[in-house]
Amino acid sequence: MIQQNLYVAFGLTLFAGLATGIGSAIAFFAKRTSTRFLSLSLGFSAGVMIYVSLVEIFVKAQDSLIAVYGKKLGSWYTVGGFFGGILLIAIIDRLVPNIENPHEVRGVEDLEEGAPTEKERKLLRMGTFTALAIAIHNFPEGLATFAAALTDPTIGVSIAVAIAIHNIPEGISVSVPIYYATGSKKKAFIWSFLSGISEPIGALIGYFLFFHYFNDTVFGILFAMVAGIMVFISLDELLPSAQKYGEHHLSIYGLVAGMAVMALSLLMFL
């Protein structure tokens, strides 16, 4: 079953990563940022990821580890894996300097302002490092999408779509300062596009590291870490960005809608 899902898992991870290019395209073709839509969409993504992480992925990880180590030890390993995933993504987050952190919200309107010549080098540096920062952040996201799709394509599709929505404003964050600095939409789009490549790279590394040693223990620990990574991303990135883009209630409505859609999709496949 895992072998059959391999190409689907890679495809979904590639789709999620390259959504940064969609954000870049929106930045160049849209007249204004639809802040209400982005707020709802990011909240929706957070709802999908939190619900599937705590209700489905964590439970599957726990079941797998309990089957190997018994209820008490298996539960401890699951919780350890969950917080280990949170620790991993938190460390990555802390290693990215604040000024170049992709959490900074930017909109399409930023393209309309003129950039003074003396600031062009600084803007180019900021855009380049934003692309690198996003690439670092996207690496564990790629591993998470790949691991989920490898074992359950249905869950993998939901996570891939949620992460793709999350990557769209990141694409805007890369393309805006690079376009400012160079005046080239092509360069801005390429950098934005490349920043998402780390997600399929994360999937490839995950494949070579784990696939040949895949068993219940590896699956359980990896899935528990995936749950932790996605909960952290939702709480640290998606919801704060959603609230910056729009009204507080819109992000919460999106969150609840994402949870409801994810719950219904899981019930449909019982």
- The tally of structural domains comes to 1
How does the helix and strand content classify structurally? mainly alpha
| Largest sheet, strands/sense/barrel | none
Ranges with pLDDT <50 over ≥5 residues?
Answer: 99-104, 111-117
What is the percentage of strand-forming residues?
A: under 5%
Q: What is the CA–CA distance across the termini?
A: 18 Å
Q: Give the SSE order as H and E letters.
A: HHHHHHHHHH
Rg, Å, rounded: 19 Å
Given the structure, what is the number of helices?
A: 10
Helix content: over 70%
Task: Provide the residue-averaged pLDDT.
Answer: 78
- Coarse shape: globular
Task: Give me the count of strands.
Answer: 0
Describe the structure.
With 270 residues, the chain is mainly alpha-helical. The protein has one domain. It has helices at residues 6-17, 19-29, 35-69, 71-95, 120-151, 153-182, 185-195, 198-210, 216-245, 248-268.
Question: Any descriptors?
Answer:
270 residues; globular; mainly alpha; 10 helices
Overview in brief:
The chain is an all-alpha fold. The protein has helices spanning 6-17, 19-29, 35-69, 71-95, 120-151, 153-182, 185-195, 198-210, 216-245, 248-268.
Secondary-structure map with pairings?
Blueprint: H1 6-17, H2 19-29, H3 35-69, H4 71-95, H5 120-151, H6 153-182, H7 185-195, H8 198-210, H9 216-245, H10 248-268
Helix pairs in contact: 1-5, 1-6, 1-8, 2-6, 2-7, 3-4, 3-6, 3-9, 3-10, 4-9, 5-6, 5-7, 5-8, 5-9, 6-7, 9-10
